[in-house]
Amino acid sequence: MSGRHATPSRWGHLYREIAKFGVVGLSGFVVNLGVFNLIRSVAHWQTVRAGVVATACAILGNYLGLRYFAYRDRAQDDRTGRRRELGLFLFFSAVGLVIENSVLYATTYGLGWDSPIATNVSKFLGIGVATLFRFWSYRTWVFRTAGGRREHTVVDPRDQAPAFPPHREAPVLAEARDWS
Prior knowledge:
Layout: H1 3-43, H2 47-70, H3 79-110, H4 116-142
């Protein structure tokens, strides 16, 4: 395949991955905002507490969607690998939860924006920032390609042909001629 056609296929794979991640993320977004607004309006919980519970509900659904839809070709099959995958997923999801709800906390308690519209906008912004972190961390650490880490091969430089021919001295004339 020529270099001209190799790049679109690599980009196409990334676009498909982002699209699948986006479908799962959109469903998590709907769950997150729905549970958040339900808890705030019915149970009258504090803003950040409702945000944490809503995010936790979305995380549970997102794990199933990411594992069985978006990254099903990368999912671990053995018990140890699955435990490791779940542990990393929960760790990075918890970091995302903190990022997401820190934005909500800062706007609610730092800036005093506690109206329903302001909290929803803050929740939306927090979800956006946390989503960027989650996409990077899930694809890098949790749902890695088959075989785990990228292979790093050590190449002995003596086994490789030199890139350029070795430098040779210019021939030296045994005697200088006098052309006069």
